[in-house]
Amino acid sequence: MNHAHVDELERIEMDEGFVWRPVRRRFGIRAFGVNAYTPREAGTQVVEDHTESQLQHEEIYLVLRGCARFTVGDDEHELGPGQLVFVRDPQLRRSAVALTADTAVLALGGKPGEAFTPSAWEWYFQAYELPTDDGIELLRRGLEELGERGPFYYHLACLEARAGRLEDAKTHLDRALELEPRLAENAAIDDDLKEVR
Amino acid sequence: MSGYEILSLHEIEPVPYHAREGEKLLTVDRLLDYRAAGVNAWLGDPGERLVPEHSEDTDEELYVVVAGRATFTVDGTNLDAPAGTLVHVTAGENRTAVAEEPGTIVLAVGATPGEAHPASGWTSWVVADALRREGRVEDGRRAMAAMLERNPGSWQASYNVACYEALAGNADAAFEHLTQAVRIDAEAVRQLAAEDSDFETLRADPRWQEVAG
Q1: Is B109 within 8 Å of chain A by CB?
Q2: What is chain A's mean pLDDT, rounded?
Q3: Is the CB of A147 inside 8 Å of chain B's CB atoms?
Q4: Of B23, B114, B119, B140, which residue has the fewest beta carbons closer than 10 angstroms?
Q5: Measured between CB atoms, does B80 come within 8 Å of chain A?
Q6: Do A108 and B74 make contact, defined as CB atoms within 8 angstroms?
Q7: ipTM, interface predicted TM-score of the complex
Q8: pTM value?
Q9: What is the pLDDT of residues A125-181, one digit of tens each?
């Protein structure tokens, strides 16, 4: 048995205003996606504005405490403790703003009919919040743990470019685009990569 | 079917789990038709058991205290768990939990690492079983039939529909569903069927040996 209170989970403050509280990684869970989120303060985001188009996950967001205003597609719902929204359609945009500072939301996700594999975002979200060299090291560890994935190489290239390691950045950007050509769209406009393009 | 749904754990009708004291299940994944993992919740008042004492063969499970307070016992170790506590338990560990405050709710999420989560229909079976204990066998049969319709590849669904058909005296339908269950997982089905009292009326039938023997 391993346990933690949601307030004891690591705090990773994201630029968008929400605080990511890693759950899956804290417990080493490999069977399903699960994380918690809290806001920096009342009125800030507690669930990032996003779709699940890439991963095709169906997701449940459960309010553990406080109150949050969820936007799903064009609809808005204020949800309190014990209430959840299940977003079945991966294409639907979803986000939530905390209405109270103590709000905590648990998010569960996975793709029906497929074995769960951890997503690269769990590594690169945090990598940008660390000193650049530490972020690069974190992404390298992610590559070792999950194997080659385009997003790892892409974000590795971004951080290496920030650190002035342009040759490494170019090599890793090339590999990212080999693995996931769709990333070329981002690479074309990404400020981090302007000296690499 | 809409692209999303809202649900309140506080408003779900609890289903008594078997005939045990406490152990009231909120069948979240069944109500949402959530398929990526098993997701359910247990509801209880002080002293009532929430999570039945059990271990899992291959699933890892995460329990989340959503409301109230619970005491978890995992392999003999007790844990006081107020709302907001997350408890991770791996396969093989013996676990149970008891409510300490009125209206305690514990969410349970489970799946097997490295495997797609199968639609076993476990929660539909719990609902059907509760209906059956109320004498509502036909309602139980309908609950399982609905589960089978959503998950035709689940041997558990075919098996349990076969049980209800057998109980209703519909031998032909029972054999039809039992045969389908055997096609999907012969070993698991034959092992369960061998001692399942629901099939008493079928055992004298010449088809029994062929299908389940």
Answers
A1: yes
A2: 95
A3: no
A4: B114
A5: no
A6: no
A7: 0.90
A8: 0.89
A9: 999 989 999 999 999 999 999 999 999 999 999 999 999 999 999 999 999 999 999
